[in-house]
Specification:
Blueprint (H helix, E strand, L loop, with lengths): L12 E3 L6 E2 L11 E3 L6 E2 L12 E3 L6 E2 L21 E2 L12 E4 L5 E2 L12 E4 L6 E4 L4 E4 L4 E5 L8 E3 L6 E2 L12 E3 L6 E2 L6
Parallel strand pairs: 1-3, 2-4, 3-5, 6-7, 7-9, 8-10, 13-15, 14-16, 15-17
Antiparallel strand pairs: 11-12, 12-13
Length: about 200
């Protein structure tokens, strides 16, 4: 049910039983658990399912989960032990925003859609990659740029992983997502290609 474990602070760890198939909206919002293990039987989770859980350090999601809905893990500040499910196809808007202490992020090969407002305030990342075999996304480690495979859309610049004073965006890029270069304090010059069409909200804020 929605908000089933919200504001629950009596436990620090929970393993849900097999057979559970759906987690409702806000089900674990600000629940206070340090560790949550979701069984393989779960095939769907609701929006903001774990949002705002400042105590959550370890989260295991089933590899069969196809979608992270909007703001699913937003503001899980302490989350460190976490990997995106291997079967994931869609990452909703803001699902991964403000996960301060996550150190490693790999976009699974099957992900075909990543909505805007992800990756903002993920200051603890030490490594970003796209799994081998992905035909939808690519990561330019030299410049810290996460882009669609055709390089038509820039999702985010992880500037702290690849500080550059000058970035020349690739030919064919048409869209720069909101907050893509937000608080990039290292870059002094960014060159946009001819044909660029859309610059999102606070892209260079």
């Amino acid at each position: 049910e929605a908000s089933a474990f919200a504001f629950c602070e009596a436990l620090t760890e929970i393993d849900l039983p097999e057979g559970v198939q759906f987690l409702g909206r806000n089900a674990f919002e600000r629940c206070g658990f340090a560790s949550i293990c979701i069984p393989d039987s779960v095939t769907e989770i609701g929006e903001a399912c774990f949002s705002g859980d400042n105590y959550l350090v370890s989260l295991t999601l089933p590899d069969g989960l196809a979608e992270l809905p909007p703001i699913a893990l937003e503001s899980c500040y302490s989350l460190m032990d976490f990997e995106l499910p291997k079967g994931l196809k869609t990452i909703g808007a803001g699902a991964l925003q403000a996960i301060f202490y996550l150190t490693h992020l790999t976009i699974p090969a099957g992900v075909t859609d990543i909505e805007q407002m992800n990756f903002l305030m993920m200051h603890g990342l030490e490594e970003v990659s796209v799994a081998e075999g992905s035909t939808s996304f690519t990561y330019d480690a030299e410049n810290g740029l996460l882009m669609t495979a055709d390089k038509a859309r820039l999702l985010h610049c992880f500037f702290h992983l690849a500080p550059q004073k000058e970035i020349i965006l690739p030919e064919g890029m048409k869209t720069i997502d909101p907050f893509a270069f937000h608080y990039d304090v290292t870059v002094e010059k960014i060159v946009l290609p001819e044909g660029a069409e859309t610059i999102g909200l606070l892209a260079f804020g």
